[in-house]
Amino acid sequence: MSFSTLSIRGLMWLLLFPVLALAGCSSKKDDPAPLPGRWTLSTMHVVEKDANGQLLQDYTLTGKSGDYLLLTDVLFQEYSNSQLNFEMPYTRAVNILTLKALVEHLNQTREIRELSASKLVLSYDRAAIVQGQSAKIEATYTR
Length: 143
What we know:
This protein is an alpha+beta fold. It contains 1 helix and 9 strands; from the N terminus they run H-E-E-E-E-E-E-E-E-E. The chain is about 15% helix and about 50% strand.
């Protein structure tokens, strides 16, 4: 090996270190996806049980074009067939959304199971329509 070959290799290593250092800096974690915005309902998986915990129904619904959520930093709005179903102010603590009703016992919670720039999955219990029955819902939204 000649001196010029060693010099070229050394120079290449010197140039490679800053590139590796920059690559290491750019591999930081992505910022969390923002929650506010419009989220279109893709699917809603529902598991209904009776008062004894026995399975009544397990089904999945497909969202229609007018089924969506509209979220700001403090307001949760749910639309069905482009009509406002309800709106409530909410707070967020990590992956739990607490929807604040005018009457405290009507407050709701929704767990964020997944959140990315294009996908939101919320899990929650639906209020019982029939005494003692329960429904667990996992709704998937996209944007």
